[in-house]
Structure formats: structure tokens, C-alpha cells
């Protein structure tokens, strides 16, 4: 829905930006003391999500939340900056539309960090999350991403401009979709509550793609877009003021994440969809097996437990699971000598 493929579209967006939108890295016109104080009070630009310190390859912590009778996972996600699907996966057996009064649910704010350089913005399509690596740690936001028919691109890009109150100029392909279903979509949708770009946006060097707000909050944290990346308006309206022009943006698809933290080995597995089929599990198991085998060969001083790995794959809930430890860590915990790790030849299969 958010691609800008037409060159004329880009011209209009840039004209809009030059006339009424502040670009990242540029200063807004100076205000008087009273006006500035009122503006600062009205616009709280501090992030809604925590900034977690990095602990090796791990960050964050699991939290809990007690629901009220009227709560839904969609509403809780919007309020606490979490995605609908990540709440569903983290709380099996709880009705997402009627969790009930007094139900204690898990807030999945513990993460194995993606296996890429920790700089700028990293979007992992497999978990519907955006990681922003700041000087003092990492912030993690839920994002809506492209569908199977209109996938988000795997790319290394950068932020080129930030936009306030953007207008949307739908490309011809999307207008044609609406016409085919009997609906009419105008050539321009002005800023406001009905605008699919939401309140703010970040233009990317990957032509036609943006990180932006939305007029459909429920789609955040799901595969719902035409390829762009949707954030809650409450998050993007603050995020654009943190991110500078030129910030790198890496988009990956990594459903299996593995890392070390304090001598412990952690595994995080994400199912591809809400319904977790036997076929999905088999594919994930193959990917997990290959990744763990490579990890053990790269770190011969670790020992992993197959049972813990199988549990992580069976659940595939996006919550990190400790699956092993460094041998030196195990020896320190037990007060003895480190156990001997079986030697393997290059290319030999490890039956963990």
C-alpha cells in the first residue's frame, strides 16, 4: 500500500516535504520562548519502549501484565508498543480477544539480537520487529511488514528524509486493486486520521519504501502491507526525531536466532504464521539444526542440550530459550574441571 513507484509521485512527495515537512538533520524555524515551551510540553518525544543494555547477544527481559475485563491483545499491544502476533505467540491458550479480568500474560521483551552488525536500524521480517541500536543500548519496536504477495525487500538501505504529516499518493497498481474490488481510491489522500501513512514517516533509499505510521493500528506486528514498514503512530511520531539522515537500515529475514550471553547459549525461534503446522515445524527444525551445528563448530567450548532445542522448536513462540552453556561456565557452576568435549573432524555431523 505504501510504495511510491511513479516518478511523478516522488516529485509530489518532495514538494510536500519542502513546503511543510521537516527533513531529518534540518532545524525547524525558531520559536519564541513561550511558544517553544508550549510545543515542548505538547510533544513528548521520548521513546515509549525501553532502551535495553546489550548483554552479549541478549537484551531485555520478560515482563508480565495483568489484564482487565475490557482488554484485548490488539489494545494492549497498541498501549504498550507490542505487536499482536508476538503477544499471541507468547501467551498460548489465552483468548486474544477476551483474555479475561485478572489474567497474567507475558510481555515478550527479551531478545536474542539478530546476527548482523549492531548499527542503526535492523528490521527482522521473521519476527515483525524493528531494532534501533542507539549509543546506550537497543530499542525494539513492532512493525507491520509486506504480505507474501507484496513482500518487503531484503535490503541494505539508509534513511534519506523524515516527514511530518505526509500526504499519500497511491501508485497506479494500488488504485487498480481498489477499482477491481469496486472501490475508488483518489490520487492523493491528505494528511489526517484517514491517511495510511499515519502521522510521520521515514523515507528510505530503497526506492518506493518507507517506515511510517498507519491508520490501521491492528496491522502493526503482522504481515499486512504492500511492502512498507508500519509502526504505531505513537512510536513513529517520536522515532523520527531520534533517527538522523543517513542512518543505515538493514532488512533481514532471520526466524532462528542464536547467541551467547554470560556463558549461556540462547535460542529464539519464530514460527512463520499464527497457525503452526507440522510442515512449518519440520522446516524450522532443519534450519535450527543447521544453525546450531554451525554454532557448535564455531564455538567448540559450548555444550548444548537437544531436549531444550526441541522444546524451543515445538513452541516457536519467539521467546529466548537457554539451550546450553560454555564448558568453562559449567565447571565454574559445579566447582570442578570442565568436562571434555568430543573432538570432531571438519564437516562431521554433531548429534547434539
What does the model show?
The chain is α+β, with helices and mostly antiparallel strands and 352 residues long. The chain folds into 3 domains: 183 residues, L,D-transpeptidase catalytic domain-like, CATH 2.40.440; 47 residues, Membrane-bound Lytic Murein Transglycosylase D, Chain A (Roll); 79 residues, no CATH class. The protein contains 9 helices and 19 strands. The strands form 5 sheets. It has an 8-stranded mixed β-sheet, with helices on one face. A 4-stranded antiparallel β-sheet has the order 16-17-19-18. A 3-stranded antiparallel β-sheet has the order 1-2-5, with no helix packed on it. Helix 7 runs antiparallel to helix 8. The two termini are 45 Å apart. The N terminus and C terminus are likely disordered.
Shape, per Cα inertia axes: globular
CATH class of the largest domain: Mainly Beta
Strand % is: 15-25%
User: How would you spell out the order of helices and strands?
Assistant: HHEEEHHEEEEEEEHEEEEHEEEHEHEH
Integer count of domains: 3
Q: Indicate the structural class.
A: alpha+beta
Q: Biggest β-sheet, characterized?
A: 8 strands, mixed
Helical proportion?
25-40%
Low-confidence parts lasting 5 or more residues at pLDDT below 50?
A: 1-42, 341-352
Mean pLDDT: 82
Cα(first) to Cα(last) distance is 45 Å
Determine Rg (CA atoms, Å): 22 Å
Amino acid at each position: 500500500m505504501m510504495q511510491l513507484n511513479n516518478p511523478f509521485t516522488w516529485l509530489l512527495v518532495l514538494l510536500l516535504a519542502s513546503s511543510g515537512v521537516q527533513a531529518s538533520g534540518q532545524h525547524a524555524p525558531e520559536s519564541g520562548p513561550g511558544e517553544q515551551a508550549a510545543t515542548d510540553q505538547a510533544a513528548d518525544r521520548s521513546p515509549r519502549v525501553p532502551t535495553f543494555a546489550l548483554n552479549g547477544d541478549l537484551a531485555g527481559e520478560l515482563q508480565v501484565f495483568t489484564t482487565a475485563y475490557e482488554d484485548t491483545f490488539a489494545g494492549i499491544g497498541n498501549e504498550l508498543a507490542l505487536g499482536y502476533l508476538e503477544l499471541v505467540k507468547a501467551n498460548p491458550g489465552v483468548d486474544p480477544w477476551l483474555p479475561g479480568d485478572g489474567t497474567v500474560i507475558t510481555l515478550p521483551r527479551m531478545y536474542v539480537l539478530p546476527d548482523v552488525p549492531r548499527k542503526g536500524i535492523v528490521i527482522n521480517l521473521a519476527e515483525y520487529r524493528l531494532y534501533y541500536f542507539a549509543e546506550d543500548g537497543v530499542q525494539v519496536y513492532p512493525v507491520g511488514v509486506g504480505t507474501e504477495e507484496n513482500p518487503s525487500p531484503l535490503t541494505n538501505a539508509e534513511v534519506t528524509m523524515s516527514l511530518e504529516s505526509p500526504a499519500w499518493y497511491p501508485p497506479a497498481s494500488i488504485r487498480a486493486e481498489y477499482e477491481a474490488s469496486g472501490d475508488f481510491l483518489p490520487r492523493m489522500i491528505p494528511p489526517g486520521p484517514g491517511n495510511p501513512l499515519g502521522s510521520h514517516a521515514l523515507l528510505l533509499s530503497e526506492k518506493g519504501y518507507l517506515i511510517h505510521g498507519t491508520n490501521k493500528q491492528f496491522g502493526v506486528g503482522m504481515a499486512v502491507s504492500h511492502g512498507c514498514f508500519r509502526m504505531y503512530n505513537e512510536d513513529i511520531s517520536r522515532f523520527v526525531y531520534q533517527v538522523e539522515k543517513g542512518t543505515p537500515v538493514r532488512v533481514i529475514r532471520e526466524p532462528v536466532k542464536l547467541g551467547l550471553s554470560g556463558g549461556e547459549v540462547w535460542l529464539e525461534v519464530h514460527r512463520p504464521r499464527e497457525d503452526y503446522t507440522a510442515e512449518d515445524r519440520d522446516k524450522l527444525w532443519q534450519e535450527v539444526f543447521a544453525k546450531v551445528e554451525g554454532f557448535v563448530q564455531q564455538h567448540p567450548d559450548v555444550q548444548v542440550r537437544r531436549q531444550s532445542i526441541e522444546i524451543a522448536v515445538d513452541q516457536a513462540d519467539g521467546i529466548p530459550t537457554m539451550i546450553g552453556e560454555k564448558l568453562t561456565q559449567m565447571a565454574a557452576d559445579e566447582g570442578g574441571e570442565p568436562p571434555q568435549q568430543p573432538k570432531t573432524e571438519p564437516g562431521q555431523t554433531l548429534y547434539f
